[in-house]
Structures are given as C-alpha cells and as structure tokens.
Amino acid sequence: MNLIDEIKALAHAQREEVIEWRRWMHRHPELSQEEYGTMAFVAERLTEMGLKPRTGIGGTGVMAMLKGEGIKAKGERDYCVALRADYDALPITEDTGLPFSSENPGVMHACGHDMHTCSLLGAAKILCQLRNRLQGDIMFIFEPSEEKYPGGARMMMDDGLFEEVLPNEIYAFHCLPEMDCGRVGMRKGRYMASTDELYWTVKGKGGHGATPHLSVDPIVVASHIVIALQQVVSRNAVPMMPTVLTIGKIQEQGGRTNIIPDTVKMEGIIRTFDPEWRLEAHEKIRHISTGVAEAMGAECDLFIDYGYPPVINDDACTQQVHDNSCAYLGADNVEWLDLRMTAEDFSFYQQRIPSCYFRIGIHEPGTPFCNLHRPNLIVDERSLELANGLIAYNAIMALNNRIKK
Asked: What is the pTM of this model?
C-alpha cells in the first residue's frame, strides 16, 4: 500500500472517533484565555497516543513532540516540522439546532476552531502510527486565544514554546465556509491583512440640548472625525494596496434626548498588507482625529493597539502544500486563493519560521452558506477526515522533501 492510501485508510478508520472529539469540543466551548477544559481534553487525547504533552504554555496552550523513527542519512541534523491548531471559542449564542450545540450559554465555536483542533488531533494519531516513516520530528501546537489580543501565538512564544526546539517549517489551516467540503486552497506571499484596533475618546463640554452654543458637542465632533477618516483609504492609501478602516462602535457617555454628553468613545480597526504603510496610516489617523477635534474646540485621545502582522506565506512551503494537496485530493480539488482582509496571529510564527497557512472547505454542497463568526455556522463533518489525512501527509512529505534537498 502506498503512503497516500495508507494515510487515507487510517483517517477513515478513526473518522467516527474524531467526529466525537469535535462534537465534545463543540458542546463545551471556552472563551479566549479560559480554555482550561479544552487544554485538559487535548492533553488527555495526546497522552492516549503515547505522547507527553506540555500544558499551560501561554496560560492554556499545549505542545507535544513526536520523535520520528525513520532512517536518516548519515550526518543528517534533526529537522522539525510544526503543525498548529487554535481552540478558543467566541462570545456568540449558538443558533444551529444541532444535537451537540453549545452547553455554555453565550459561547460558541463559530469560527471552526473545534474542527481545527480535532483535525490536528486526528493527524497526530495518524503520525504516531506512522512514526517509522518520519525522517525527523513533528511538533504539535494547540494554541489558545487566537481571537483575542495579544494572541495565543505571541503568548506561547513569550512563554518559551520554542525554547528547546525551533521548528524548521510550520503549517496551519483554517476552515472556509464558502468553499465546498473536499476542496482546499492556498496563496503564496501576502495572503491576510495585519490588524490594529483603534480606540478614540472625544472630549467636549456637555450641557443642555436646547443651549448647544454653551457646549462643545462631542457627538458632532466624533461624527466629523468619522467622515474625515474616510480619506485615509480613499485618498492616502495606494490603490493597489488593499486597506480597510472601519469604525464599528460609537458610544456617548451620559447623553439623553436633551443632554449633550461630555464624552464620546469610538472603536474601530485598520487593516492592510504593507508594514510601512501600516505605520504611516496610524499617524494619519492620529493627525486627522486630533486635528478635527482641536478645530472644533474639543480634544481627542487615540489609543492604537498594535495587533497581528500580515499573514505572508513562504513560497516554497506553499508550493509544497499545493503539490501535496493535488497528490492527496486530485488537482481539480485544489485552488489558488485571493487576498483576504481577515487577520490571524499565525503571522507571529511566520516572522521566525518558513510557513504556509492554507484553507480547507467545510460547506456541504446544496445547503445555505453561512459565514464564520455567525450563530448558525455548521461544519460539514466529512471535512475532518480529509483534514487530518492531508495534514499528516503534508507533514511527512515536508520531512521527506527536506531529505531530498
């Protein structure tokens, strides 16, 4: 039996077990930095496979190493391929009607992280069974808090994730609801945007709504700031460089129908792909915000929470994922993807390690489409068997390709 057929047979044999793992996780979602039950669940599964997981990294993260037993060339140095999955949930009330819906009110795996984690657990089980084919080592990373700054990747690295071993390559995937189950996609180079959170406090002078001339209305000032900021994208960003600036929340502090408040708070995001333009945009946002407020007799404080860098895939790693996917699934089921303005803290790993972040389809053909971060997101569970097999195959081939170089 060739390697692909062997992996597919193992993935199929454990299909029901992996689905049950995923359903347990879906019933028991935990928010960012609160994933203690999930951490224990993952560690228990890894221990059952004969691995020795290290827990509590970055608070609630897990890492385990699998030592390959394949024959290495004489004098060959140790080589390590890392595989990463995230496992935090979102503050969303589930509305799927599934029999294994969330039992934690107001919390849901609405981004597919339960699918990511159990697919990697499935891949880990396959790789443990095929350790004699591994001409190198595999690092399994189960990351908490991807959805919340400062991000689990940075938290785990700051807590010594790579203290003993720095992987030579690292791979991760994210489910994609707009892609049918059975398909995968990837993109070389720039793929996903950086993201920074913006927090404004506009300070005016409150008063009676019937005597506005005695006040400095921060609502009016904030409204002018919102309009003025539109030129950051429309007149300052290079047209060929995608940029998104969104104000998602405006909240006055103490106003009523006849009361002008003292303060208005706003929150938003800036996303782009170019590190230099990213910093330049920050300064333009600050200059416009403070300038408009000052011109109208108010003050504006802006806090920029510097977030995740852009996801930039290594060309060689991405070509490898593409070629391995074609071999495993057939070329007709593999596609090159467009840029996305979403963001991912996997980019922190990419700053140190050659990598690829790719996509696996979870949409059941013929059913309504539902996007990520929505209360009615449903994962076609057939994608689990595909994912854990493909992850395992790509890991083995990554080690083999290194040997051939």
From this structure: 0.93
In the prediction, which pLDDT does 73 show?
56
Mark whether 107 and 136 lie in a shared domain.
Answer: yes
Collapse the DSSP code of 122 into the 3-class scheme (helix H, G, I; strand E, B; otherwise coil) and give the result.
helix
Comparing CA positions, the residue from 269, 187, 285 lying closest to residue 236 is: 285
DSSP 3-state assignment of 367?
Answer: coil
* Same domain? 79 vs 142: yes
Residue that finishes a domain, picked among 274, 308, 342: 308
Cα dihedral: 330, 332, 337, 342 (round 10): -70
pLDDT of residue 76: 65
Residue 78: its pLDDT value, please? 86
Residues 169 and 216 in one domain: no
Distance linking the first and last C-alpha atoms of the chain: 26
- Name the domain boundary from 308, 329, 350: 308
CATH assignment of the domain containing 79: 3.40.630.10
Handedness of CA 25, 29, 32, 33 (dihedral sign): negative
Rounded to whole angstroms, what are the CA distances from 403 to 41, 133, 353? Answer: 35, 12, 18
Check if the beta carbon of residue 390 is closer than 8 Å to that of residue 3.
no
Model confidence at 281: pLDDT above 60: yes
- Identify the domain containing residue 130 by its residue range: 3-192+310-404
